[in-house]
Design brief:
By secondary structure, this protein is an alpha+beta fold. Helix content is about 25%, strand content about 30%. The protein has a seven-stranded antiparallel β-sheet. A four-stranded antiparallel β-sheet has the order 7-12-9-10, with no helix packed on it. The chain has a two-stranded antiparallel sheet with strand order 3-4. α1 crosses α3 and α2 packs across α3. The structure holds N-oxalylglycine (OGA) and manganese (II) ion.
């Protein structure tokens, strides 16, 4: 029986993706969910931006989530614990896959009811720093018919669905950032996640 980091390394090495049990313990997902809701209540999440190097803009046609980056030395224990877990995963994947990821970055994301993120790739055209995309879902009791799934598509313009993932707490997804077009479908309720990337320096 492989442990979770081994299953993630296996997935990345074979298919290029992993979707399954999270590296976060349930109690950490619960504390992060609490933290994310708190940040939303105090208006500390802000409309996400798209683009890079001068082309940065908010674009509600493309994405409608509100986000907040985690600070490297946060005073919030759940944020520090999440960063420590992602750091450990990064070290692990560097050893298993010779990934060469020197940094991690993470942000909270909240999709209000009806918000979505249209099909996109996570790597900027002019910047190949992002190696692996990570998404940790923070939603308890997500009903089957609530929408809000992550759709991962084949990298050949065929629109073939590779996986469709419910954003339920305890589930994480990770994939090679340059490989898979993906989108977030609108949901009929708030959808919280912690999303991030393992990157080159
Ligand atoms: C992203 C993204 C997927 C998700 O933030 O780039 O694709 O399921 N998120 O939240
Ligand atoms: Mn994405």
């Amino acid at each position: 029986m492989l442990n979770i980091p081994e299953r993630i390394a296996n997935g990345l090495a074979t298919t290029g993706w992993y979707a399954g049990q999270s590296i976060f313990a349930d109690e950490l997902s619960a504390r992060l969910a609490h933290r994310a809701r708190r940040l939303a209540d105090t208006h500390e999440l802000h409309p996400a931006r798209v683009g890079h190097n001068g082309g940065v803009q908010t674009n509600a046609q493309l994405r409608g989530d509100d986000t907040r980056w985690l600070a490297p030395a946060s005073d919030d224990a759940s944020e520090r614990d999440a960063m420590a877990a992602v750091h450990a995963l990064r070290v692990n994947l560097n050893q298993a896959l010779f990934l060469g990821a020197q940094e991690s970055e993470l942000h909270f994301a909240r999709y209000a009811p009806g918000a979505f993120y249209r099909t996109h790739r996570d790597r900027f055209r002019d910047d190949d720093a992002r190696l692996v995309s990570l998404v940790f879902y923070l939603n308890d009791d997500w009903p089957d018919d609530a929408g809000g799934e992550l759709m991962l598509y084949a990298d050949d313009d065929s629109e073939t669905v590779i996986i469709r993932v419910q954003p339920s707490a305890g589930t994480m997804v990770c994939f090679l950032s340059d490989r898979f077009p993906h989108e977030v479908l609108p949901a009929n309720r708030e959808r919280y996640s912690l999303t991030g990337w393992l990157r080159r320096a």
